[in-house]
Write a structure and sequence with these properties.
With 516 residues, the protein is of the alpha+beta class. Helices cover 30% and strands 30% of the residues. The chain contains twelve helices and 26 strands. The longest helix is centred in the N-terminal third of the chain and has 20 residues. The radius of gyration is 25 Å and the shape is globular. Magnesium ion binds next to loops. Adenosine-5'-diphosphate (ADP) binds next to helix 5 and helix 6.
């Protein structure tokens, strides 16, 4: 029986949890004995070009900022983001694979080889970013059996440790992303109602506010810039983060600033900090409002607010949420570890469903009462050209096929019609987004379906989108008369084989790189 693991591949910190003999998830510490591994990479020039991942990488970035990488998750799936090191361009998927490889290696050293894993992603990640995350896992030598939404993982962990029922709002403020998700929980039965996220809002933005306060203090005293080099910036970013964390415990944080014009003592109060971060808290509030609006609920309809992510340790977050909801948020679970623990539970449930013979009896018993209903996180549609009733002209439109927040697994079909006589092909586009106007949705794939020759117009084409429990989407476009079929799957090809994408081909070369 192989080990079953869940991985929280975080913007700032990552961690890995494994199911024990009775199906309870446990964090596997890294080789330094730490339960969290910084998602930081440093390409060492010395030591045979070894790639350092984790705390050593984080500390080494002061030595050479140009060879250090952090916050990769913010760029996941972005084809334009590359980090050039010694003539090689590293993609976000490859960089994430290095972090995953480190987690895999370290846990193998402590708890035996691992293969099957579920990796968590923010609920608002689109298909491209989910696929990029899965590719990173594959490139790191893992068999990615599923992807789980981080708030679902957190709620899973929470619901298996205490009695919960009612509407749970998961408020996840991490280092680089913010997610808010509303769920209906009845014991171990949980259903996501809706979810929203901002992938450019997290702890680092609060650090920036502190950095701005320090810069201003220096400017006011010396009339000069505090930060002269990239190395200075890295140092003061760390300082700003420390001050922020201190302010979570104490009303004032003190530090020394050593700028080019002289040194000074600086004192930052919690009040100054909280004033500075008001716009960030308002951005988070807006998403909470959107989620409640989508669900047609008021704050008083929510029974529990569950905190996830290191940044929810800020007292401001807690008091602010209490003022919105009228009761204090729930913070009894470990805000840093609950996502990895829940991802391991999710991996167990997935393995039990798909390959029960390879799940140990104790694990099976431990998981048997958990049931989970997840939803589709986005609306998916296609571009079509219906006739406008008023003008009689064709208009190009995005038509939604699979609606956001539909419970999984789901399958929906719609029929479209060819436009012209003798039409040889239809361009099929898969979109993601809510708008009717194609300019305001993402086109996640475009292909062409060849049609039989010499036919009149208005021939039916059936379009079927389905979304499975592992967060994978399948799309089928079928010409009804000829039966010709075009199938697109975001992780499997038509033969059911795992498709080798360009990204995976590239990441196959990662094996020779030594990660430590
Ligand atoms: P991610 O999911 O993005 O990897 P985490 O949930 O691990 O992030 O949270 C990391 C963030 O939490 C960092 O920005 C860190 O500064 C912040 N953080 C951790 N502890 C505290 C604290 N005591 N007070 C304020 N922020 C904190
Ligand atoms: Mg996180």
């Amino acid at each position: 029986m192989s080990n079953i693991v869940g991985i929280d591949l975080g913007t700032t910190f990552s961690s890995l949890a494994m199911l024990n003999a009775i199906g309870k998830p446990e964090i596997v510490p890294n080789t330094d004995g730490d339960r969290l591994t910084p998602s930081a990479i440093f390409f060492d020039e010395d030591d045979g070009g070894v790639i350092r991942v984790g705390v050593e990488a984080l500390n080494s970035r002061h030595l050479n900022a140009a060879r250090s990488v952090r916050w990769v998750k913010r760029h996941m799936g972005d084809p334009d983001y590359k980090v050039s090191i010694d003539g090689k361009d590293w993609t976000p998927t490859e960089l994430s694979a290095l972090v995953l490889k480190k987690l895999r290696q370290d846990s193998a050293a402590q708890a035996g080889e691992i293969r099957d894993a579920v990796i968590s992603v923010p609920a608002h990640f689109d298909e491209i970013r989910r696929k990029a995350t899965m590719d990173a896992g594959t490139a790191a030598g893992l068999n990615v059996i599923g992807i789980v939404n981080e708030p679902v993982a957190a709620a899973l962990c929470y619901a298996t440790t205490r009695d919960v029922s009612g509407r749970v709002l998961v408020y996840d403020l991490g280092g680089g992303t913010f997610d808010v998700t509303l769920m209906e929980v009845k014991g171990l039965d949980m259903e996501i109602i809706c979810s929203q996220g901002d992938h450019a809002l997290g702890g680092i933005d609060f650090d920036k506010t502190v950095l701005e306060i320090l810069q201003k203090m220096y400017q006011d005293k010396f009339g000069a810039e505090l930060i002269a080099t990239e190395e200075d910036r890295a140092k003061y970013e760390d300082e700003a983060e420390d001050i922020k964390k201190t302010l979570s415990r104490r009303p004032v944080a003190k530090t020394m600033l050593y700028g080019p014009s002289g040194s000074m003592r600086a004192e930052v109060s919690r009040e100054m900090f909280e004033q500075g971060v008001t716009p960030l808290v308002s951005r988070a509030d807006m998403l909470v409002e959107v989620v409640l609006d989508e669900a047609g609920l008021k704050p008083s309809d929510v029974n529990t607010v569950l905190l996830v992510g290191g940044s929810t340790r800020m007292p401001l977050v807690r008091t602010h949420l209490e003022s919105i909801f009228g009761f204090p948020p729930e913070c009894s679970i470990n805000v840093d570890e609950c996502v990895a623990l829940g991802a391991a539970l999710h991996a167990g449930i997935t393995k039990l469903r798909e390959d029960p013979d390879h799940v140990a009896a104790g694990v099976r018993e431990g998981l048997k009462d958990i049931s989970l209903t997840d939803v589709c996180n986005h609306s998916y549609g296609t571009i079509c050209a219906p006739i406008d009733k008023e003008t009689g002209r064709r208009v190009i439109q995005n038509r939604i096929i699979l609606k956001k927040n539909t419970p999984l697994p789901c399958e929906v079909s719609q029929t479209f019609y060819t436009v012209s006589e003798g039409q040889k092909r239809v361009e099929v586009t898969i979109t993601q987004g809510e708008d009717v106007d194609p300019a305001f949705v993402n086109r996640i794939a475009t292909h062409s379906l060849e049609l039989p020759p010499d036919r009149p117009a208005e021939r039916p084409i059936n379009v079927t989108y389905s979304y499975d429990l592992n967060q994978r989407m399948h799309c089928a476009f079928q010409d009804v008369e000829s039966g010709r079929l075009l199938e697109l799957d975001f992780s499997l090809d038509e033969n059911g084989e795992k498709e080798t994408t360009q990204e995976e081909k590239a990441t196959a070369h990662l094996e020779p790189f030594k990660v430590q």
